[in-house]
Amino acid sequence: MYELDAALFATTVAPVLSAKGCDAAGDCHGGGIRGTYQLSPDVNKDLDFDFGQSALQVDGYDPTQSPLLTEPLAPSAGGSTHGFTAFDSTDDPGYLAILDWILQGEFR
Questions:
Q1: What is the rounded distance in angstroms from the CA atom of residue 59 to the CA atom of residue 69?
Q2: Total number of domains in the chain
Q3: What angle do CA 20, 27, 65 make, to 5 degrees?
Q4: What is the CA radius of gyration of the chain?
Q5: 62 to each of 28, 68, 100, 102, how far by Cα in Å?
Q6: Per-residue pLDDT tens for 1-45?
Q7: Number of Cβ within a 10 Å radius of residue 66
Q8: Are 14 and 50 in contact (CB under 8 A)?
Q9: Cα(51)–Cα(17) distance, integer angstroms
Q10: Cβ-count burial of 93 within 10 angstroms (0-12 exposed, 13-18 middle, 19+ buried)?
Q11: How far apart are CA 86 and CA 44, in angstroms?
Q12: What is the pTM for the complete model shown?
C-alpha cells in the first residue's frame, strides 16, 4: 500500500487545491461528486476527507501519471482533458507542491 502524509497534505496540497478553486461549489469538486474526485466545500472544510479523496487520485507506481496531477494539467504539457486547467506547465509551483507530496509517499 502506498502511504501519503496527511499533515503534509494539509499544509502544502490543500492550500493549492483551494487557491485553484477545486473545492468551490457549483460544478467544481466541492459541489458534489465530479467523476471520481470529491472535496469538501470551501465553506465547510474537512481536511481528513479531502486527504482521503486526494490519496485515491495518486499512483504510487507512476507518480507523474497520478490523476491528481494529470487532470488539472494543460493537455499541451502532458495533462488530460479537463474542464479547467489549473496548471499550465509542470513548472507551476502548485503542480510541484502536489508532485513533491506524492513523491514523499512510501510503499508499506
A1: 10
A2: 1
A3: 55
A4: 13
A5: 26, 12, 13, 10
A6: 999 999 999 999 999 999 988 876 655 665 555 567 888 888 889
A7: 19
A8: yes
A9: 11
A10: exposed
A11: 22
A12: 0.89
**Nearest C-alpha neighbor of 14 from the set 84, 68, 73, 79:** 68
Domain that holds residue 69: 2-107
Q: Which residue has the cell 474526485?
A: 37
Number of residues written out for the chain:
108
Residue 57 has which C-alpha cell? Answer: 487520485
Q: Give the integer Cα–Cα distance in Å for 60 and 43.
A: 31
Q: Is 1 helix (H, G, I), strand (E, B) or coil?
A: coil
Say how many C-beta atoms besides its own lie within 10 A of residue 53's C-beta.
Answer: 18
